[in-house]
Design goal:
alpha/beta; TIM Barrel; 8-stranded parallel beta barrel; about 20% strand; binds ligand PBG; Delta-aminolevulinic acid dehydratase; EC 4.2.1.24; lyase; Aldolase_TIM; ALAD
């Protein structure tokens, strides 16, 4: 045998030398959940280790993440049921919980990057990402609400807005609204290939945002499709997206690779709530080593071609490498 691949695996130093993929804290965006009130920190039962914070405790959480080296965040607000309506009007209330939280974070930590979610579901009494009329999700009417929402977020201090709604034309629409109002420096990370997935469950628990009726299959993509992701990528690019995102990540590593190979834009992947919950649940049962599984999962997403990973593991990972 002249070729013995095991030679390059024989010691830790050699293995490290030939390692093709490395993770760093700069790769991560850490999602945060916000609730009304004071001095609140409530764990989400389906996401062990992840909490919903009132604005005061949220600032402490951001501080401890920044000290660990995690500097980019994706905040989400949990809106009381009585403030939700069909038009999701609370989504563009400048004094609402979400813009208040953004302003507070940016005031206390001007250097962190905030990527804010643009979609109606946490604010909609129907629990859908768009306006519902006779069971149908209206596209163009929804764009107007998304535009108002993105503008309020930009005014509050968002660095990047992240439309996660999958309406047609939203990236171009939001780009125009932001530019017309003078926010041409605010970026757009489009949830480009967002699939109708069963792995969103714990997130919808966290925000009580599950659809009241039906599913999201008329706007989120069919998980059997990959060419369709290229159509979405092409449109988002033409419409002015600064980043393309694939969501979820783990059952979609081929889609991450596909977009990486077909675009010059940075590619993000969202390692979503259900993916996090699976690892945590198995680890809590003693069925797998949770820490090792975390590193393996995150490395696989990077290896597939993601430049940026949105993950609930960001803080865990930062604590892990500090140890
Ligand atoms: C809102 C939104 C969702 C997630 C991010 N933004 C839920 C959904 O589309 O139903 C899910 C994130 C996760 O599961 O971690 N549209």
């Amino acid at each position: 045998m002249t070729r013995r691949p095991r030679r390059n695996r024989q010691s830790e130093v050699i293995r490290n030398m030939v390692e093709e993929t490395t993770l760093g804290l700069n790769d991560f965006i850490f999602p945060l959940f916000i609730i009304e009130g004071q001095n609140k920190k409530i764990e989400i039962s389906s996401m062990p280790g992840i909490n919903r914070f009132s604005i005061d405790t949220l600032l402490e959480e951001v501080n401890s993440c920044v000290e660990l080296g995690v500097k980019a965040f994706a905040p989400f607000a949990s809106i009381p049921e009585q403030l939700k309506d069909k038009m999701a009007s609370e989504s563009h209330n400048p004094d609402g919980l979400f813009p208040r939280a953004i302003r507070e974070i940016k005031k206390n930590f001007p250097d962190v990057v905030l990527m804010t979610d643009v979609a109606l579901d946490p604010y909609s009494s129907d629990g859908h990402d768009g306006i519902v009329e006779n069971g149908e999700i209206l596209n163009d009417e929804t764009l107007e609400v998304l535009g108002k929402m993105a503008l309020v977020q930009a005014q509050a201090g968002a660095d990047i807005v992240g439309p996660s709604d999958m309406m047609d034309g939203r990236v171009g629409y939001i780009r125009k609204v932001l530019d017309d109002a003078g926010y041409n420096k605010v970026g757009i990370m489009s949830y480009t290939a967002k699939y109708a997935s069963s792995f969103y469950g714990p997130f919808r628990d966290a925000l009580d945002s599950a659809p009241k009726k039906g599913d999201k299959k008329t706007y989120q993509m069919n998980f059997a499709n990959s060419r369709e992701a290229l159509i979405e990528a092409e449109l988002d690019t033409q419409e002015g997206a600064d980043f393309l995102m694939v969501k979820p990540a783990l059952a979609y590593l081929d889609i991450i690779k596909l977009l990486r190979e077909n675009s010059h834009l940075p590619i993000a992947a969202y390692n979503i709530s259900g993916e996090y919950a699976m690892v945590k649940a198995a680890a809590q049962n003693g069925w797998i080593d949770g820490e090792k599984a975390m590193v393996e999962v995150l490395t696989s997403i990077k290896r597939a071609g993601a430049d940026i990973i949105l993950t609930y593991f960001a803080k865990d990972y930062a604590q892990f490498i500090r140890r």
